[in-house]
Amino acid sequence: MVTELGHFALILAFLVAIVQSIVPLVGAHKRWPGWMAVAEPAATVQFLLTAFAFAALTYAFVTSDFSLRLVWLNSHSAKPMIYKISGVWGNHEGSMLLWVLILTLFGAMAAWFGKGLPPTLRARVLAVQSAVAVAFFAFIIFTSNPFLRLVVPPFDGQDLNPLLQDPGLAFHPPFLYLGYVGLSICFSFAVAALIEGRVDAAWGRWVRPWTLAAWVFLTIGIALGSWWAYYELGWGGFWFWDPVENASFMPWLLAAALLHSAIVVEKREALKSWTILLAILAFGFSLIGTFIVRSGLLTSVHAFANDPERGVFILMIMVFFTGGALTLYAFRATAMEAKGVFGVASRESALVANNVILAVSCFVVFVGTMWPVVAEMFFDTKLSVGAPFFNMAFTPFMVVLGLLLPLGSMLSWKRAKVDRAIKQLVPGFILSVLLLGLFWTMQTGTSLLGPVGVFLAAWVISGAVVDLINRTGQTRDLSRLLRLPRSDWGKATAHIGFGITMVGIAGLMAWQEEDIRVAQIGEPFQVGDFELELTAVNQVRGPNYFSTMGDVIVRSDGEQIAFLNPEKRNYPVAQMPTTEAAIDYRFLRDIYVVIGDPQDNGGWVMRTYVKPLANWIWAGALLMSLGGVLSLTDRRYRVAAGARRQATPQGVPAE
Hints:
InterPro entries: CcmF_C, Cyt_c_assembly, Cyt_c_biogenesis, Cyt_c_biogenesis_CcmF. It comes from Marivita cryptomonadis. By secondary structure, the protein is α+β, with helices and mostly antiparallel strands. Helices cover 63% and strands 11% of the residues. The strands form 2 sheets. Strands 2, 3, 4, 5, 6 and 7 form a 6-stranded antiparallel β-sheet that branches. Strand 9 (589-598) and strand 10 (604-612) form a beta hairpin. Helix 7 (119-143) packs antiparallel against helix 12 (308-332) and helix 14 (387-410) packs parallel to helix 16 (449-470). The chain is globular and about 80 Å long. 51% of the residues are buried.
């Protein structure tokens, strides 16, 4: 009964979305306050109905209702509760319902917190957001219905993909979707601004927090996915340049560019046209990611579905909204005249350079991801574009970005004295060079990647610290740091996090040690500075799997420092094995152990890695996210919204 009510709520939400996408838009065009006012309650009702549908599906998974086809295909009665819940979105249909739930949530939040917006702009934003929802409601109801019943319910289910039965991946999709779908509200703001033919500082102030929130969620989602791949897949890496990894990374790059571009619109009313284009493209690449994950166009361990017919439906949604928005942009971009004028040496110019680097690097990733498909379709040639291409083509852009970031942060708005900014950064530059020399001297015969990574990280971090210190004034009154706006602290924290991630990636890639051997029980072996010994291999039974678990002792200078249990699991229902790496996490390095198959001589295949600075990658990502959260709590957003609300009478468009 509950699932039938959920299905009915989903259909009602679809109908409400149709009304919300038409009535407020007509009301804004005709300046009819009553019609525009429909948008706010409709957005709330649409979200509540979708939330009920999602809750009904969750209830079916939690209670193991195998009369529901989706539950039968993706759950099992013996599965732990956390994976019964995560099984709701661990499949195509359920994940699309989560997508639409988040889409309607952002629409409802725009209605709840957007009362300071001009009524016409708010109505158009909510109408465009609902139009996107209409398309995805139709996609779910007509091609991917999660509430389909089985005529004869089976006794038990087929279980969830074992790779998805992990805490990291249980939370990875929701955060990623909050980022993906969060960019839809930026898209709605952009299209609404194009319809109105006006972008001003207030528009930039409203778009910026939405972009920031989406970027924060994307950062957390990507970091969780990277961490999951690191410890779960057993191959020892954190990033493979997989097509689906790239699909989430491309919107992140464009969202970062949009975030910095919106600052220029807010502060100087410049880069209006470019900012609108970035908002369209950022959500457009989110739709491209959805298409890649669900169409079967590109093979990936992360893919949700392999269904070309449903992929065509998503492709039509992508072409309609992205193509329609770009067409509207082509007609109305000339109306986005920039008011602010700035010199070549200015913070505006630095932010333009930032935008160009991020946008071009996104294009490089896109070309590398899609080129195998293009080559096969048009040239009948099978190609594989892997990590070597991306590392060579993408890394130089990040190096340039790291070099420019501290200098750009120090420049003044409109016109700046470059020599003054450089003079302030000299101590940080000297420190960075000294660290480069130190690490170059310490390493023997290895690449320049590690020392250069240390230099860039120190340069970026010292630039952020110097920028904060400069805000204490000429008296260097450090107590003024406590009174700085949270957005300043957020920017510094995010830049420091970026630097820490850079040194983590460089250190791991440059100084990692790897050992693959057949390990005999009771025979120690050396990997780098550490001694490892496989002492036993046991057969262990889990809640819904059988495990071959090794006991590994790790010693340093003769003393035991860790006891690790690498596993190789087999899930009998899904008939699929998984590898569970055992990792000794430390501040400066990880020891990473994977156990393989038994050998004829009685030994076991073991892979061991010593991974320097591995945890710094995710620590830096968390700091970047924390910086975004700090900026979101800046009181200037609340004060500006309140002032706007008081200055704009209800029902009267703001000029």
